[in-house]
């Protein structure tokens, strides 16, 4: 049925013109070749020890002599995930160690020394990586980490009697979770403008950084894919006013292993372990958003803590000083994600800096290859960080929108990037290739993007673009309805 659908629908429609490669990847995965059809002879993604020739086969003469016909796939083809990160196989091996898999937070601490040791070791390594003073491991996602940081900030102000500090400065390009978190933590948002270069307008920031400011939430690199050069001056200004700097660390993939955020003057930062440090995730998890703190905020941070005394790991469940605001959730955090993160960090070692280097290089490669065809939002004549922001200026003379363009990408077999975000450029398309894409796959992607863009600006296919995707089983979704009324159980047709 699928075959005839593909033949009947596609042979008459525009998607065929998008194809640039031998394998007809159409409508995302619907025409994906089977794993037996992918790969190259000799490619291997697992390590199996050679069999001891002296050991007799269990079935004696019934030994197989012909090839068993396993798929020839490399490691990345097998384990790559929606994070598009490199997810080392060792991650999954570690997570399935029975003592870790079956450990339970209700077990007495002397029965779970290994699990506590793992979380403690990861906590220490994340502190080393960021140069910060303390860490809270329990937040269950990025947004939850933001909330943890902002509640800590709120607690600091409460304890210091700063009742007049009600506002938090947030740039207009911020991720939606930032203003939401700020509001949930009891603060009010004061929006800071971006300059025409896509960065925080420092003059505007200065004007708005008054005595009533409790802190700022700054994403760095920001959502336009740019490093905020004024970050140190911003931190100084906030500190002068008795306010704190929260850095949204969701974009650590661009900085990992290269910057001690402590030196930028940051007081709190969350990390999205599930984004930056592997762990396949989708829709609603699994996630983990530990928060690192400066010395100043440490005593207000939430409980519990794991500490090491001699050879023993202990947990602190209560804050006797009364400074901590409480807890973010039950127990110590997402142990499965913690295990994968530690395994990833140990597997990469000094390679963490190479990860951020390659992620930035790949984004700039896309920018360089595409900027003559697809208009760049920011930065105009400079390098970007790990994401490159395009906009819809090149579609100005057509009736084709960013949405139409993104849907056409589905017909060509590519998952569309984030669109219409950030809001600071018109019809945004934010592309993040990550470090794990090969030059071949980036070239393939660029070729297809250029093909689609050339068809789009030709003025001859507007109607067809409005009807994309044609090859996907689901076409134009009512996204609001899908988000508000999800069908969460399998329904047989
Ligand atoms: C993903 C992201 C978040 C939120 O993280 P979740 O784990 O999805 O809650 C916050 N800020 C930025 C910049 C992000 O990219």
From TrEMBL:
InterPro entries in the cross-refs: Aminotrans_V_dom, GDC-P_C, GDC_P, PyrdxlP-dep_Trfase, PyrdxlP-dep_Trfase_major, PyrdxlP-dep_Trfase_small
Decide whether keyword Oxidoreductase is in the record.
yes
Could you tell me what reaction this enzyme catalyses? Answer: N(6)-[(R)-lipoyl]-L-lysyl-[glycine-cleavage complex H protein] + glycine + H(+) = N(6)-[(R)-S(8)-aminomethyldihydrolipoyl]-L-lysyl-[glycine-cleavage complex H protein] + CO2
Q: What is its EC number?
A: 1.4.4.2
Gene3D superfamilies in alphabetical order:
Aspartate Aminotransferase, domain 1 (3.90.1150.10), Type I PLP-dependent aspartate aminotransferase-like (Major domain) (3.40.640.10)
Keyword annotations: Oxidoreductase, Pyridoxal phosphate
Q: Which residues form the Glycine dehydrogenase C-terminal domain?
A: 358-454
In the UniProt record, the signal sequence range is: none
Q: Which domain of life is it from?
A: Eukaryota
Query: Coiled-coil regions in this chain?
Result: none
Domain Aminotransferase class V: residue ranges: 149-282
**EC primary class:** oxidoreductase
Could you confirm whether the keyword Oxidoreductase appears in this record?
yes
- Return the NCBIfam families for the record: PRK04366.1 (NF003346)
Q: What is this protein called?
A: glycine dehydrogenase (aminomethyl-transferring)
List the source organism: Anaeramoeba flamelloides
């Amino acid at each position: 049925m699928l075959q005839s659908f593909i033949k009947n629908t596609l042979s008459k429609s525009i998607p065929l013109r998008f194809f640039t490669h031998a394998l007809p990847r159409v409508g995302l995965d619907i025409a994906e070749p089977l794993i037996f059809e992918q790969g190259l002879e000799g490619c291997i993604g697992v390590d199996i020890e050679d069999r001891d020739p002296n050991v007799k086969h269990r079935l004696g003469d019934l030994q197989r002599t012909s090839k068993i016909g396993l798929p020839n796939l490399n490691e990345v083809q097998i384990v790559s995930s929606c994070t598009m990160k490199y997810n080392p196989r060792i991650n999954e091996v570690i997570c399935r160690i029975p003592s870790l898999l079956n450990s339970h937070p209700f077990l007495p601490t002397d029965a779970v020394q290994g699990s506590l040791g793992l979380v403690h070791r990861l906590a220490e390594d994340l502190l080393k990586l960021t140069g910060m003073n303390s860490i809270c491991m329990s937040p269950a996602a990025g947004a939850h980490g933001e909330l943890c940081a902002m509640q800590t900030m709120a607690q600091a102000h409460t304890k210091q009697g700063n009742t007049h500090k009600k506002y938090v400065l947030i740039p207009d390009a911020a991720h939606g979770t930032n203003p939401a978190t700020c509001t949930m933590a009891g603060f009010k948002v004061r929006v800071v403008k971006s300059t025409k270069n896509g960065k925080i307008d420092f003059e505007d920031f200065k004007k708005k950084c008054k005595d009533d400011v409790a802190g700022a939430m700054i994403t760095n690199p920001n959502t336009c894919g740019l490093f905020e050069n004024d970050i140190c001056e911003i931190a100084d200004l906030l500190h002068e006013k008795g306010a704190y700097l929260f850095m949204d660390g969701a974009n650590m993939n661009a900085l990992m292993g290269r910057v001690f955020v402590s030196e930028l003057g940051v007081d709190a930062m969350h990390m999205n372990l599930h984004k930056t440090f592997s762990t396949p995730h989708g829709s609603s998890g699994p996630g983990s958003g530990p928060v690192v703190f400066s010395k100043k905020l440490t005593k207000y941070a939430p409980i519990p803590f794991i500490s090491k005394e001699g050879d023993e790991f202990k947990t602190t469940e209560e804050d006797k000083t009364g400074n901590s605001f409480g807890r973010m959730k039950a127990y110590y955090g997402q142990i499965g994600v913690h295990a994968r993160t530690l395994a990833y960090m140990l597997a990469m070692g000094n390679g963490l800096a190479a990860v951020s280097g390659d992620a930035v290089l790949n984004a700039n490669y896309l920018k360089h290859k595409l900027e003559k065809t697809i208009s760049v939002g920011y930065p105009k004549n400079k390098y970007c960080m790990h994401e490159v922001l395009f906009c819809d200026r090149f579609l100005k003379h057509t009736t084709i929108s960013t949405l139409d363009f993104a849907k056409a990408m589905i017909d060509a077999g590519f998952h569309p990037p984030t669109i219409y975000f950030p809001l600071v450029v018109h019809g945004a398309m934010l592309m993040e290739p990550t470090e794990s894409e090969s030059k071949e796959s980036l070239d393939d992607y660029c070729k297809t993007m250029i093909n689609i863009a050339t068809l789009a600006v030709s003025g001859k296919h507007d109607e067809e673009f409005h009807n994309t995707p044609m090859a996907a089983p689901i076409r134009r979704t009512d996204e609001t309805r899908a988000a508000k009324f999800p069908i969460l159980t399998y329904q047989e047709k």
